[in-house]
Design goal:
CATH architecture of the largest domain in chain A: Orthogonal Bundle
Strand order of the largest sheet of chain B: 1-3-2
Strand order of the largest sheet of chain A: 1-2
CATH superfamily of the largest domain in chain A: Winged helix-like DNA-binding domain superfamily/Winged helix DNA-binding domain
Number of domains of chain A: 2
Largest interface: A-B, 45 and 76 residues
Structural class of chain B: mainly alpha
Shape of chain A: elongated
Number of strands of chain B: 3
Oligomer: heterodimer
Number of helices of chain A: 6
Strand content of chain B: under 5%
CATH topology of the largest domain in chain A: Arc Repressor Mutant, subunit A
Helix content of chain B: over 70%
Structural class of chain A: mainly alpha
Shape of chain B: elongated
Order of helices and strands of chain B: HHHHHEEEHHHHHHHH
Strand content of chain A: 5-15%
CATH class of the largest domain in chain A: Mainly Alpha
Number of domains of chain B: 1
Distance between the termini of chain A: 70 Å
Number of strands of chain A: 3
Order of helices and strands of chain A: HHHEEHHEH
Number of helices of chain B: 13
Amino acid sequence: MAQIRPAAASRGSRRAAGELEAAALGVLQAAGRPLTPAEVRQELGDDLAYTTVVTILSRLHAKGVLTRHRSGRAFSYAPVADEPGLAARRMRRVLDAEADREAVLARFVSGLGPEDEHVLRRMLANLPDQSS
Amino acid sequence: MRVMVFLPLIVPVLAAVGARPLAERLPPRMATWLLTLSSVVLAVASGAVLGLLALAGAMSLPVFASLGSLSARAMSRVDAAPLLLGVIAAAFLAAAALSVLRAAWLRISALISAHREARRLSGDGRLLVIVKDARADAYAVPGWPARIVVTSGMLDSLTAAESEVLLAHERAHTAARHYLFLAAARLSAAANPMLRPLAAAVSYSIERWADEQAVRVTGNRPLAARAIAKAALASAAAHSGPGTATHVLGAAGDKAEISRAGSVPRRVNALLGPPPPQRFVLLALAIGLVVVSSLAALHAADDLHAMIEFAQAVVLA
Protein backbone atom coordinates (compact mmCIF):
# COMPACT_ATOMS: atom_id res chain seq x y z
CA MET A 1 0.00 0.00 0.00
CA ALA A 2 2.69 2.41 1.05
CA GLN A 3 4.51 1.60 -2.18
CA ILE A 4 1.52 2.03 -4.43
CA ARG A 5 0.29 5.35 -3.15
CA PRO A 6 3.20 7.59 -4.18
CA ALA A 7 3.03 6.26 -7.74
CA ALA A 8 -0.71 6.80 -7.95
CA ALA A 9 -0.34 10.25 -6.47
CA SER A 10 2.31 11.30 -8.98
CA ARG A 11 0.24 10.01 -11.88
CA GLY A 12 -2.71 11.98 -10.56
CA SER A 13 -0.71 15.18 -10.23
CA ARG A 14 0.69 14.81 -13.73
CA ARG A 15 -2.79 14.61 -15.14
CA ALA A 16 -3.78 17.55 -12.97
CA ALA A 17 -0.86 19.52 -14.42
CA GLY A 18 -2.39 19.28 -17.90
CA GLU A 19 -5.75 20.41 -16.58
CA LEU A 20 -4.11 23.25 -14.67
CA GLU A 21 -2.32 24.42 -17.81
CA ALA A 22 -5.64 24.58 -19.63
CA ALA A 23 -7.27 26.38 -16.70
CA ALA A 24 -4.43 28.92 -16.46
CA LEU A 25 -4.61 29.56 -20.21
CA GLY A 26 -8.37 30.06 -19.88
CA VAL A 27 -7.87 32.59 -17.07
CA LEU A 28 -5.36 34.56 -19.15
CA GLN A 29 -7.58 34.51 -22.25
CA ALA A 30 -10.57 35.68 -20.21
CA ALA A 31 -8.58 38.43 -18.50
CA GLY A 32 -7.77 40.28 -21.69
CA ARG A 33 -4.65 41.78 -20.10
CA PRO A 34 -1.32 40.38 -18.90
CA LEU A 35 -1.51 38.80 -15.44
CA THR A 36 1.15 38.06 -12.85
CA PRO A 37 1.39 34.56 -11.33
CA ALA A 38 -0.19 35.93 -8.13
CA GLU A 39 -3.21 37.19 -10.06
CA VAL A 40 -3.53 33.92 -11.97
CA ARG A 41 -3.33 32.02 -8.68
CA GLN A 42 -6.10 34.18 -7.25
CA GLU A 43 -8.29 33.60 -10.32
CA LEU A 44 -7.71 29.84 -10.26
CA GLY A 45 -9.07 29.90 -6.73
CA ASP A 46 -7.64 26.57 -5.59
CA ASP A 47 -5.17 26.41 -2.75
CA LEU A 48 -2.34 26.14 -5.25
CA ALA A 49 1.21 26.87 -4.23
CA TYR A 50 2.63 30.03 -5.80
CA THR A 51 5.54 28.03 -7.20
CA THR A 52 3.10 25.62 -8.88
CA VAL A 53 1.45 28.51 -10.72
CA VAL A 54 4.85 29.88 -11.74
CA THR A 55 5.84 26.43 -13.02
CA ILE A 56 2.64 26.11 -15.07
CA LEU A 57 3.03 29.56 -16.58
CA SER A 58 6.68 29.10 -17.47
CA ARG A 59 5.87 25.74 -19.02
CA LEU A 60 3.17 27.34 -21.18
CA HIS A 61 5.65 30.05 -22.08
CA ALA A 62 8.21 27.44 -23.09
CA LYS A 63 5.57 25.83 -25.33
CA GLY A 64 5.11 29.16 -27.10
CA VAL A 65 1.53 29.53 -25.91
CA LEU A 66 2.20 32.55 -23.65
CA THR A 67 4.31 35.66 -23.94
CA ARG A 68 5.75 37.30 -20.85
CA HIS A 69 6.99 40.72 -19.86
CA ARG A 70 8.84 41.72 -16.74
CA SER A 71 6.59 43.76 -14.47
CA GLY A 72 8.27 44.72 -11.23
CA ARG A 73 9.81 41.69 -9.61
CA ALA A 74 7.70 39.08 -11.37
CA PHE A 75 6.79 38.35 -14.97
CA SER A 76 3.32 39.00 -16.25
CA TYR A 77 1.92 36.59 -18.79
CA ALA A 78 -0.45 36.95 -21.73
CA PRO A 79 -1.66 34.49 -24.39
CA VAL A 80 0.25 34.69 -27.66
CA ALA A 81 -1.72 37.00 -29.94
CA ASP A 82 -1.47 34.37 -32.62
CA GLU A 83 -4.87 32.75 -32.42
CA PRO A 84 -4.75 31.32 -35.98
CA GLY A 85 -1.32 29.94 -35.18
CA LEU A 86 -2.64 28.17 -32.11
CA ALA A 87 -5.60 26.83 -34.00
CA ALA A 88 -3.36 25.64 -36.82
CA ARG A 89 -1.12 23.81 -34.40
CA ARG A 90 -4.14 22.20 -32.82
CA MET A 91 -5.45 21.29 -36.26
CA ARG A 92 -2.20 19.65 -37.16
CA ARG A 93 -2.37 17.58 -34.02
CA VAL A 94 -5.94 16.55 -34.79
CA LEU A 95 -5.14 15.72 -38.41
CA ASP A 96 -1.99 13.86 -37.47
CA ALA A 97 -4.22 11.59 -35.42
CA GLU A 98 -6.48 10.82 -38.39
CA ALA A 99 -5.84 7.55 -40.16
CA ASP A 100 -6.49 9.08 -43.55
CA ARG A 101 -4.78 12.41 -43.01
CA GLU A 102 -2.20 12.12 -45.77
CA ALA A 103 -4.94 11.83 -48.32
CA VAL A 104 -6.82 14.83 -46.98
CA LEU A 105 -3.95 17.25 -46.52
CA ALA A 106 -2.41 18.23 -49.82
CA ARG A 107 1.19 18.64 -48.71
CA PHE A 108 3.53 20.75 -50.83
CA VAL A 109 6.20 18.08 -50.57
CA SER A 110 5.68 14.51 -49.42
CA GLY A 111 8.25 12.55 -47.47
CA LEU A 112 11.55 11.69 -49.11
CA GLY A 113 12.82 8.16 -49.63
CA PRO A 114 16.34 7.16 -48.57
CA GLU A 115 17.87 8.00 -51.95
CA ASP A 116 15.66 11.00 -52.75
CA GLU A 117 17.59 13.48 -50.67
CA HIS A 118 20.80 12.57 -52.46
CA VAL A 119 19.13 12.87 -55.89
CA LEU A 120 17.54 16.22 -54.98
CA ARG A 121 20.79 17.74 -53.75
CA ARG A 122 22.47 16.83 -57.01
CA MET A 123 19.60 18.35 -58.99
CA LEU A 124 19.77 21.55 -56.93
CA ALA A 125 23.52 21.78 -57.43
CA ASN A 126 22.99 21.69 -61.17
CA LEU A 127 20.26 24.34 -61.20
CA PRO A 128 21.29 27.90 -61.95
CA ASP A 129 21.05 29.91 -58.72
CA GLN A 130 18.33 32.53 -59.03
CA SER A 131 18.15 33.59 -55.42
CA SER A 132 20.71 36.37 -55.86
CA MET B 1 -19.38 -15.19 -72.47
CA ARG B 2 -16.54 -16.93 -70.66
CA VAL B 3 -13.76 -14.61 -71.77
CA MET B 4 -15.86 -11.49 -71.94
CA VAL B 5 -17.14 -11.81 -68.40
CA PHE B 6 -13.63 -11.93 -66.98
CA LEU B 7 -12.42 -8.96 -69.00
CA PRO B 8 -13.42 -6.35 -66.38
CA LEU B 9 -11.41 -8.36 -63.88
CA ILE B 10 -8.33 -8.44 -66.14
CA VAL B 11 -8.29 -4.84 -67.41
CA PRO B 12 -7.43 -3.45 -63.91
CA VAL B 13 -4.16 -5.41 -64.10
CA LEU B 14 -3.27 -3.65 -67.37
CA ALA B 15 -4.37 -0.33 -65.89
CA ALA B 16 -2.21 -0.94 -62.83
CA VAL B 17 0.82 -1.56 -65.03
CA GLY B 18 0.09 1.43 -67.25
CA ALA B 19 -0.89 3.94 -64.56
CA ARG B 20 2.53 5.29 -63.70
CA PRO B 21 3.83 5.63 -67.27
CA LEU B 22 0.58 7.41 -68.17
CA ALA B 23 0.90 9.76 -65.20
CA GLU B 24 4.40 10.68 -66.36
CA ARG B 25 3.74 11.01 -70.08
CA LEU B 26 0.37 12.74 -70.22
CA PRO B 27 -0.15 16.40 -69.28
CA PRO B 28 -0.99 16.23 -65.56
CA ARG B 29 -4.53 17.58 -65.80
CA MET B 30 -5.43 15.09 -68.52
CA ALA B 31 -3.70 12.30 -66.60
CA THR B 32 -5.61 13.11 -63.41
CA TRP B 33 -8.99 13.04 -65.14
CA LEU B 34 -8.18 9.89 -67.12
CA LEU B 35 -6.78 7.94 -64.18
CA THR B 36 -9.53 8.99 -61.78
CA LEU B 37 -12.40 8.24 -64.13
CA SER B 38 -10.74 4.99 -65.22
CA SER B 39 -10.36 3.78 -61.68
CA VAL B 40 -13.99 4.57 -60.87
CA VAL B 41 -15.29 2.86 -64.04
CA LEU B 42 -13.05 -0.17 -63.58
CA ALA B 43 -14.04 -0.51 -59.93
CA VAL B 44 -17.73 -0.37 -60.82
CA ALA B 45 -17.30 -2.78 -63.75
CA SER B 46 -15.38 -5.34 -61.72
CA GLY B 47 -17.91 -5.04 -58.91
CA ALA B 48 -20.75 -5.53 -61.38
CA VAL B 49 -19.13 -8.65 -62.82
CA LEU B 50 -18.63 -10.12 -59.35
CA GLY B 51 -22.27 -9.38 -58.62
CA LEU B 52 -23.38 -11.06 -61.84
CA LEU B 53 -21.29 -14.15 -61.19
CA ALA B 54 -22.70 -14.38 -57.67
CA LEU B 55 -26.24 -13.94 -58.96
CA ALA B 56 -25.76 -16.55 -61.66
CA GLY B 57 -24.33 -18.94 -59.09
CA ALA B 58 -27.28 -18.33 -56.80
CA MET B 59 -29.76 -18.96 -59.63
CA SER B 60 -28.40 -22.48 -60.09
CA LEU B 61 -29.55 -23.26 -56.54
CA PRO B 62 -33.12 -24.60 -56.56
CA VAL B 63 -34.20 -22.35 -53.66
CA PHE B 64 -33.17 -19.16 -55.48
CA ALA B 65 -34.34 -20.47 -58.81
CA SER B 66 -37.86 -21.01 -57.47
CA LEU B 67 -37.87 -17.45 -56.15
CA GLY B 68 -37.29 -16.18 -59.68
CA SER B 69 -39.61 -18.91 -61.04
CA LEU B 70 -36.75 -20.30 -63.10
CA SER B 71 -35.83 -23.84 -63.94
CA ALA B 72 -32.74 -24.68 -61.90
CA ARG B 73 -32.04 -27.55 -64.24
CA ALA B 74 -32.13 -25.23 -67.21
CA MET B 75 -29.83 -22.79 -65.46
CA SER B 76 -27.30 -25.43 -64.52
CA ARG B 77 -27.48 -26.96 -67.95
CA VAL B 78 -26.55 -23.64 -69.51
CA ASP B 79 -23.77 -23.66 -66.99
CA ALA B 80 -23.53 -19.91 -66.80
CA ALA B 81 -21.43 -19.96 -63.71
CA PRO B 82 -20.71 -22.96 -61.55
CA LEU B 83 -21.87 -22.63 -57.98
CA LEU B 84 -18.31 -22.52 -56.64
CA LEU B 85 -17.46 -19.57 -58.86
CA GLY B 86 -20.59 -17.81 -57.64
CA VAL B 87 -19.63 -18.36 -54.01
CA ILE B 88 -16.11 -17.03 -54.61
CA ALA B 89 -17.47 -14.00 -56.44
CA ALA B 90 -19.95 -13.30 -53.63
CA ALA B 91 -17.15 -13.46 -51.07
CA PHE B 92 -15.00 -11.02 -53.06
CA LEU B 93 -17.96 -8.72 -53.54
CA ALA B 94 -18.74 -8.68 -49.83
CA ALA B 95 -15.09 -7.96 -49.00
CA ALA B 96 -15.05 -5.12 -51.54
CA ALA B 97 -18.24 -3.60 -50.13
CA LEU B 98 -16.90 -3.69 -46.57
CA SER B 99 -13.60 -2.20 -47.69
CA VAL B 100 -15.34 0.66 -49.53
CA LEU B 101 -17.56 1.41 -46.53
CA ARG B 102 -14.57 1.49 -44.22
CA ALA B 103 -12.53 3.70 -46.57
CA ALA B 104 -15.49 6.04 -47.06
CA TRP B 105 -16.00 6.32 -43.32
CA LEU B 106 -12.31 7.12 -42.73
CA ARG B 107 -12.26 9.62 -45.55
CA ILE B 108 -15.44 11.39 -44.54
CA SER B 109 -14.46 11.64 -40.89
CA ALA B 110 -11.03 12.98 -41.86
CA LEU B 111 -12.66 15.55 -44.15
CA ILE B 112 -15.12 16.59 -41.45
CA SER B 113 -12.43 17.09 -38.86
CA ALA B 114 -10.31 18.99 -41.40
CA HIS B 115 -13.29 21.19 -42.20
CA ARG B 116 -14.14 21.75 -38.54
CA GLU B 117 -10.58 22.73 -37.70
CA ALA B 118 -10.22 24.87 -40.83
CA ARG B 119 -13.24 26.90 -39.73
CA ARG B 120 -11.60 27.63 -36.41
CA LEU B 121 -8.59 29.16 -38.14
CA SER B 122 -9.23 32.90 -37.88
CA GLY B 123 -12.78 33.98 -38.60
CA ASP B 124 -12.18 36.34 -41.49
CA GLY B 125 -12.15 33.63 -44.14
CA ARG B 126 -8.58 34.14 -45.24
CA LEU B 127 -7.18 31.40 -47.43
CA LEU B 128 -3.61 31.60 -46.21
CA VAL B 129 -2.64 30.89 -42.62
CA ILE B 130 0.96 31.29 -41.55
CA VAL B 131 1.87 29.30 -38.46
CA LYS B 132 4.76 30.15 -36.19
CA ASP B 133 6.63 26.85 -36.32
CA ALA B 134 10.31 26.29 -37.00
CA ARG B 135 9.62 22.99 -38.76
CA ALA B 136 9.18 23.48 -42.50
CA ASP B 137 5.77 22.34 -43.64
CA ALA B 138 3.03 23.48 -46.01
CA TYR B 139 -0.33 21.96 -46.86
CA ALA B 140 -3.80 22.71 -48.14
CA VAL B 141 -6.74 21.74 -45.93
CA PRO B 142 -9.97 21.04 -47.79
CA GLY B 143 -13.05 22.64 -46.28
CA TRP B 144 -15.46 25.52 -46.63
CA PRO B 145 -13.48 27.73 -46.74
CA ALA B 146 -10.35 25.80 -47.63
CA ARG B 147 -7.11 26.84 -45.95
CA ILE B 148 -3.50 26.89 -46.95
CA VAL B 149 -1.27 26.44 -43.94
CA VAL B 150 2.39 27.39 -44.25
CA THR B 151 4.86 27.34 -41.36
CA SER B 152 7.29 30.17 -40.74
CA GLY B 153 10.05 27.55 -40.95
CA MET B 154 9.04 26.81 -44.53
CA LEU B 155 8.96 30.50 -45.48
CA ASP B 156 12.40 30.98 -43.89
CA SER B 157 13.90 28.28 -46.08
CA LEU B 158 12.55 29.72 -49.34
CA THR B 159 13.16 32.99 -51.16
CA ALA B 160 10.19 35.28 -51.81
CA ALA B 161 9.91 34.05 -55.42
CA GLU B 162 10.08 30.42 -54.29
CA SER B 163 7.34 31.04 -51.70
CA GLU B 164 5.19 32.34 -54.51
CA VAL B 165 5.59 28.97 -56.25
CA LEU B 166 4.52 27.20 -53.07
CA LEU B 167 1.42 29.37 -52.68
CA ALA B 168 0.46 29.02 -56.35
CA HIS B 169 0.84 25.24 -55.99
CA GLU B 170 -1.40 25.01 -52.91
CA ARG B 171 -3.95 27.41 -54.41
CA ALA B 172 -4.16 25.12 -57.44
CA HIS B 173 -4.98 22.21 -55.10
CA THR B 174 -7.82 24.08 -53.41
CA ALA B 175 -9.15 25.80 -56.54
CA ALA B 176 -9.42 22.57 -58.56
CA ARG B 177 -10.67 20.51 -55.57
CA HIS B 178 -7.91 17.94 -55.98
CA TYR B 179 -8.93 16.10 -52.84
CA LEU B 180 -12.08 14.90 -54.66
CA PHE B 181 -10.01 13.20 -57.38
CA LEU B 182 -7.89 11.55 -54.75
CA ALA B 183 -10.92 10.47 -52.73
CA ALA B 184 -12.54 8.88 -55.81
CA ALA B 185 -9.34 7.04 -56.73
CA ARG B 186 -8.79 5.83 -53.16
CA LEU B 187 -12.36 4.54 -52.84
CA SER B 188 -12.01 2.68 -56.15
CA ALA B 189 -8.78 1.14 -54.91
CA ALA B 190 -10.58 0.12 -51.71
CA ALA B 191 -13.18 -1.70 -53.84
CA ASN B 192 -10.59 -3.37 -56.04
CA PRO B 193 -7.04 -3.59 -54.61
CA MET B 194 -5.69 -4.13 -58.13
CA LEU B 195 -6.45 -0.45 -58.73
CA ARG B 196 -4.08 0.76 -55.99
CA PRO B 197 -1.36 1.77 -58.48
CA LEU B 198 -3.98 4.04 -60.13
CA ALA B 199 -4.64 5.81 -56.84
CA ALA B 200 -0.90 6.29 -56.36
CA ALA B 201 -0.65 7.66 -59.92
CA VAL B 202 -3.56 10.07 -59.26
CA SER B 203 -1.85 11.34 -56.13
CA TYR B 204 1.31 11.96 -58.20
CA SER B 205 -0.51 13.59 -61.10
CA ILE B 206 -2.44 16.07 -58.91
CA GLU B 207 0.92 17.21 -57.52
CA ARG B 208 2.19 17.59 -61.08
CA TRP B 209 -1.00 19.45 -62.01
CA ALA B 210 -0.45 21.92 -59.16
CA ASP B 211 3.24 22.21 -60.11
CA GLU B 212 2.40 23.07 -63.72
CA GLN B 213 -0.20 25.57 -62.50
CA ALA B 214 2.47 27.19 -60.32
CA VAL B 215 4.67 27.43 -63.42
CA ARG B 216 1.85 29.16 -65.30
CA VAL B 217 1.49 31.67 -62.45
CA THR B 218 5.18 32.38 -61.95
CA GLY B 219 6.28 31.80 -65.54
CA ASN B 220 9.48 30.10 -64.54
CA ARG B 221 10.06 26.33 -64.65
CA PRO B 222 13.54 26.22 -63.06
CA LEU B 223 12.27 28.43 -60.23
CA ALA B 224 9.43 26.00 -59.53
CA ALA B 225 11.85 23.03 -59.64
CA ARG B 226 14.11 24.82 -57.20
CA ALA B 227 11.30 25.72 -54.80
CA ILE B 228 10.09 22.12 -54.61
CA ALA B 229 13.57 20.68 -54.13
CA LYS B 230 14.45 23.20 -51.41
CA ALA B 231 11.11 22.78 -49.62
CA ALA B 232 11.46 18.99 -49.68
CA LEU B 233 14.97 19.11 -48.26
CA ALA B 234 13.92 21.62 -45.59
CA SER B 235 10.96 19.55 -44.43
CA ALA B 236 13.03 16.35 -44.54
CA ALA B 237 15.58 18.06 -42.30
CA ALA B 238 12.76 19.17 -39.99
CA HIS B 239 11.52 15.61 -39.66
CA SER B 240 14.77 13.69 -39.40
CA GLY B 241 16.92 16.26 -37.60
CA PRO B 242 20.42 17.33 -38.58
CA GLY B 243 23.12 14.98 -39.78
CA THR B 244 21.47 13.52 -42.86
CA ALA B 245 23.17 15.76 -45.40
CA THR B 246 26.30 13.70 -45.72
CA HIS B 247 26.20 13.15 -49.46
CA VAL B 248 28.74 14.75 -51.71
CA LEU B 249 27.40 16.71 -54.65
CA GLY B 250 28.07 14.94 -57.90
CA ALA B 251 26.92 14.72 -61.48
CA ALA B 252 23.26 15.04 -62.45
CA GLY B 253 21.05 12.02 -61.81
CA ASP B 254 20.70 9.66 -64.73
CA LYS B 255 17.39 8.46 -66.09
CA ALA B 256 17.40 5.16 -64.22
CA GLU B 257 18.09 6.91 -60.95
CA ILE B 258 15.17 9.30 -61.50
CA SER B 259 12.76 6.50 -62.34
CA ARG B 260 13.69 4.70 -59.14
CA ALA B 261 13.32 7.87 -57.08
CA GLY B 262 10.26 8.97 -55.10
CA SER B 263 7.65 11.43 -56.28
CA VAL B 264 9.44 14.65 -55.28
CA PRO B 265 12.61 14.10 -57.37
CA ARG B 266 10.39 12.99 -60.28
CA ARG B 267 8.36 16.20 -59.99
CA VAL B 268 11.53 18.29 -59.95
CA ASN B 269 12.87 16.36 -62.93
CA ALA B 270 9.63 16.94 -64.86
CA LEU B 271 9.94 20.69 -64.23
CA LEU B 272 13.51 20.71 -65.47
CA GLY B 273 12.30 19.42 -68.85
CA PRO B 274 9.82 21.02 -71.26
CA PRO B 275 6.09 21.04 -70.42
CA PRO B 276 4.52 17.66 -71.30
CA PRO B 277 2.93 17.58 -74.78
CA GLN B 278 -0.68 16.54 -75.43
CA ARG B 279 -0.74 12.87 -76.42
CA PHE B 280 -4.10 12.08 -77.90
CA VAL B 281 -3.19 8.62 -79.24
CA LEU B 282 -2.12 7.46 -75.81
CA LEU B 283 -5.24 9.01 -74.31
CA ALA B 284 -7.51 7.33 -76.87
CA LEU B 285 -5.84 3.97 -76.24
CA ALA B 286 -6.36 4.23 -72.50
CA ILE B 287 -9.98 5.34 -72.86
CA GLY B 288 -10.59 2.53 -75.35
CA LEU B 289 -9.40 -0.05 -72.86
CA VAL B 290 -11.72 1.25 -70.15
CA VAL B 291 -14.67 1.41 -72.55
CA VAL B 292 -14.07 -2.19 -73.68
CA SER B 293 -13.98 -3.24 -70.06
CA SER B 294 -17.29 -1.61 -69.21
CA LEU B 295 -18.90 -2.95 -72.39
CA ALA B 296 -17.80 -6.42 -71.36
CA ALA B 297 -19.52 -5.97 -68.00
CA LEU B 298 -22.71 -4.81 -69.75
CA HIS B 299 -22.49 -7.76 -72.15
CA ALA B 300 -22.19 -10.16 -69.23
CA ALA B 301 -25.24 -8.62 -67.61
CA ASP B 302 -27.13 -8.99 -70.88
CA ASP B 303 -26.06 -12.63 -71.11
CA LEU B 304 -27.32 -13.36 -67.62
CA HIS B 305 -30.60 -11.66 -68.39
CA ALA B 306 -31.05 -13.76 -71.53
CA MET B 307 -30.27 -16.87 -69.57
CA ILE B 308 -32.80 -16.05 -66.88
CA GLU B 309 -35.45 -15.49 -69.53
CA PHE B 310 -34.55 -18.81 -71.11
CA ALA B 311 -34.87 -20.60 -67.78
CA GLN B 312 -38.17 -18.90 -67.05
CA ALA B 313 -39.39 -20.06 -70.46
CA VAL B 314 -38.35 -23.64 -69.63
CA VAL B 315 -40.47 -23.49 -66.44
CA LEU B 316 -43.47 -22.21 -68.34
CA ALA B 317 -43.14 -24.78 -71.09
